[in-house]
Task: structure prediction
Amino acid sequence: MSGVTKRSLSIRGHSTSISLEDAFFDELMRIASERSLSFAALVAEIDERRDRRTNLSSALRLYVLGDLKSRKT
Result:
């Protein structure tokens, strides 16, 4: 199991950082690729829709979980 890796990126012209396990990062990259989006564009979309009480890294993990659960049905 991989540890948490901190990554820096720019979304909508604003620098930010996220802390994610490699498995979540890999799944987000897969989703972005399937949707023909850049990683930053996918993160910006998730950021725009998230509940502001949830931090961005958690919102990304929940997005991956939701995607994987929707594939099971």
Helices lie at 22-34, 39-49, 56-72. The first strand starts at residue 4 and ends at 11. The first helix runs from residue 22 to 34.
